[in-house]
Amino acid sequence: MKFYQLPPTERRTELAKDGADLLDVEPAELERLNEMSENVVSEIVLPLSVIKDALVNGKKWTIPMATEEASVVAAANHGMSVFKKAGGVTAESDRTGIYGQIVLEVGDAFSLKKFEKAFPDYIALANQEFASLVRHGGGLKEITAEQKGHLVYLLALVDPAEAMGANKTNAILEFLAQKMEFFPGVTAKLFAILSNYPSQITMAKVKIPVDLLGKSQEAGLAVAQKMALLAKIGEEDVYRATTNNKGIMNGVDAALIATGNDYRAVEAASHALAVKNGRYASLSHWAVDGNFLTGEVKLPLAIGVVGGSISARPDIRQSYSILGKIKAKELAELIASVGLANNFAALNAISTKGIQAGHMRLQSRNVAMNLDATDEEKEAVYQLMISQQKYGESAAEDFLKELRGR
Ligand code: MEV
User: Fold this and answer.
1) Are 71 and 132 in contact (CB under 8 A)?
2) Which of 39, 55, 272, 304 is the Cys-Cys partner for 163 at CB 3.0 to 4.6 Å?
3) Which residue has a Cα nearest atom 9 of ligand 1?
4) What is the pLDDT of residue 194?
5) CA distance linking residue 224 with residue 348, whole number of Å
6) Out of the domains of life, which is the source (predicted)?
């Protein structure tokens, strides 16, 4: 039997023979995981954290985030708490649909004009074939085409209703391509597959009174000006832009993972959007407007609240139980708001005390827990690290020596 055909327990035995040290996983859990993927041998577990009391479009939400990086959750909560004091985030998702691409090879007998005239019929045929999607409020919305020599590039816009829609879009595209192959002048179908090009664009905005950013109006204004300058550098300098966007994706990916969404698709689309003007730039924009700091982010969020592995995964279902009843549009608006909150927190920290102080403080628990010491000693070292603001490994070791010497 080939490795991939073995039951997961036997795959584990094979790897163990080669020295792998795998976690114990309950047999039933291993079986469940095995149904989700290929060559399964164990599991990776992430902490599920939340943003408490996020205020988005006038409604309070608890938003799940799955990440191993403590500072990402802390930053999101900090950003959202400032946004809440400022009246909350305003977000809007244009769920117009996701793109699918078909490329056909055509001969001299092909007429683009005639082909375009047939598009309404193709749309009707597809919507008849995929009637259940139409019943759920979605469907094939539009087809456009461009001819480049002997190739015709088609774009189909599919409204996936409450799902991300990748599988459905691919099925619609294959159905269409099969029909289109018979159109006069079409000689071959080259491919038919969804495109991860930016779609389902979602915008989140905040307007923060500067006095929330400092001890006085004047101090707050100075912080806001530094933050806006840092953001402007991100719009012009690719080194800063990349890091700025990483900070946004810190929050976005964590929320995507917690809600069972395809973060690879969102990442790919976000990078395409970041380079839309021919130069990679920041996905967010911050400015000072009188006594306010205004911020906004625009993200392509092809996400869903049903479909994919969402209902099959108990770990993901718990996130939806935290969120409560939610539409895909609302979830996209929350995720864009989280990205903006993480971006705000990063710009704010960099413009004031620097990023390292907060990061190190949050990492210090891990540093203390890695010491070769008893649980009581580790806790005591951690408390000393926090109270004395010394967060590195050597500081932890010194504290341990000091404790033992007492
Ligand atoms: C670290 O994970 C993310 C930041 O570097 C983002 C930024 O610099 O904007 C803090």
Assistant:
1) no
2) 304
3) 244
4) 97
5) 8
6) Bacteria
Catalytic residue (choose from 246, 327, 353, 401): 246
Name every protein residue with a CB atom under 6 angstroms from any ligand 1 atom: 243-244, 246-247, 250, 346, 350, 355
Cα distance between residue 228 and residue 286, in whole Å: 5
Pick the CATH number of 98-194 from 3.40.50.150, 3.40.120.10, 3.40.50.300, 3.30.70.420: 3.30.70.420
Q: Look up 285 and say whether it is catalytic.
A: no
Q: Does domain 359-405 have CATH number 1.10.8?
A: yes
**Ligand 1 atom, smallest distance to 250 CA:** 2
CATH 1.10.8 in the chain: give the residue spans.
359-405
Catalytic residue among 69, 211, 235, 377: 69
Instruction: Look up residue 84 and give its two tokens.
Output: 């809440």
What's the pTM? Answer: 0.90
pLDDT at res. 209: 98
Phi, psi of 312 (to 5 degrees): -85, -10
53-94+200-352 fold: 3.90.770
| Residues 166-185: tens digit of each pLDDT | 999 999 999 999 999 999 99
Please, what's the b/e burial string for 126-164 (b: 16 or more CB within 10 A of its CB; e: otherwise)?
A: bbebbeebbebebbbeebebeeeeeebebebbbbbbbbb
Contact call for residues 94 and 85 (beta carbons, < 8 A): no
Rounded Cα distance, 141 and 203, in Å: 22
Q: How far is the CA of 9 from the centre of ligand 1 (A)?
A: 40
Distance 221 CA to ligand 1 centre (A): 22
C-alpha to C-alpha distance for 125 and 117, rounded to whole angstroms: 14
Distance 260 CA to ligand 1 centre (A): 24
Q: Read off the DSSP letter of residue 22.
A: P
